[in-house]
Amino acid sequence: MLSTKQDNYVAIVDCNNFYASCERVFNPKLNNKPVVVLSNNDGCVIARSQEVKDLGIPMGIPVFKIRHLVEIHDIQIFSSNFALYGDISNRIMSIIRSGNADMEVYSIDEAFVNVNPRYKDPIKYATDLKNKIYQWTGIPVSVGIGKTKTLAKVANHLSKRNVGKDNVCLIDNDNIQKLLTRIKVGDIWGIGRRKQRFLKINGIYNAYDLKRANPEWIQKHMTVISRHTVDELNGIKKIELEYENATKKSISTSRSFSRMISDLNTLRNAISSHASRSAEKLRSQNSFVNSIGVYLCTNRFRADLPQYRRYINVQLPIALNDTSGIINAALEGLYKIYRSGYEYKKCGVILTDLIQANEVQQSLFYSRREKDEKISKSIDQINQIFGSDTIRYAVQGQNESWSIKREKLSPSYTTNWNEFLTLKI
């Protein structure tokens, strides 16, 4: 039975076809047209508008395999513009946060919130929030509401099928059996393919079947997490909101090249840029690094070329978080693993053994650390105001010939002064 305890409702706000919707905000000509966004190097489809989904084009398909459909249906293709998507996401999260202190940013386009008890009608709350987000950002969202995060996720899945009203769906005592019956067990949050197969073998085909399952039997034959899913379907909260972003235990920055790279100078530019970006991420969570991993690899799909893959870990004498020190250590690793005569397809930098600032061991023999940290923080502040890489280290190079291919990149409408829209009156 659904719990009768008067807990707050949980809602999940989910942006509809987020990347495609971001492209449409500043280009209304794309409305009602099929739109896809591609992965790094314009390789595979990673986002689809509803029109593209209706054509049956799957997620992750290489774009060259759908060239005929692109021509027939006039599908609009865009390279991934993460600067634009990230900025719009931040604006949406700020709108949600302004009305709810209890909030968990679940992904770039999803957030959980505890619905404040002062809102007597959770559907009206969700509808008002949905309309506010659309009015202020132009991004359409769907909202699912339930007594638990799992029920909210199920409701959100239904809201995208136009169950409920205006892309808002509430699961409560009155409709829980009817709505859960409509959800296949494989579509439940946290149920993967292996669990789905096991459950179907045992006669559990939909969310309502799983809700009625014996929790102890589920835990015995599956996992305690699966039991929590059953409890949540019964309105018993087991998965709480995570209000603070967890500190990452490692930071990785890597990129496949738009072309094969063989010369050391270009690889030095790439590794330095990855190290610089990793250092920014490190400082953003107030951490320091004790060891740095660097790797190079050729294209394993090119059987006609000699293959080489190598990883090295560089141990630092003291923990650092300044860009110059991290770049120097990363280049030290690169020089040790680089071998001439190979065509490289990818390289990367991984920061491991991270500690928080209050755990850093001070050193008498590294007098420059404080000065280098201040320089890095100043560079961060300038780049945040005037755009990424406004100030960069010379070793990163000026012409990123190694960078990913993005031939269909839209302007950075909100993060680059030179690409702001101008209106002619």
Overview of the molecule:
This protein has 425 residues and is an alpha+beta fold. It has a domain at 251-396: Dna Ligase, domain 1 (2-Layer Sandwich), CATH 3.30.1490.100. It has 14 helices and 12 strands. It has helices spanning 18-25, 50-54, 67-73, 82-99, 122-137, 149-159, 176-180, 193-201, 207-211, 215-221, 224-233, 264-284, 323-337, 369-386, and strands at residues 10-15, 35-38, 45-48, 76-79, 103-107, 110-114, 141-146, 168-170, 251-261, 287-298, 309-320, 344-356. The chain has a 5-stranded mixed beta sheet with strand order 5-6-1-7-8. The chain has a 4-stranded antiparallel beta sheet with strand order 9-12-10-11, with helices on one face. A hairpin with a 6-residue loop joins strand 2 and strand 3. Helix 10 (215-221) packs antiparallel against helix 11 (224-233). The longest helix is centred in the middle third of the chain and has 21 residues, at 264-284. The N and C termini lie far apart (62 Å). Mean pLDDT is 89; it is low at 1-6.
Keywords:
single chain; 425 residues; five-stranded mixed beta sheet; four-stranded antiparallel beta sheet; 14 helices
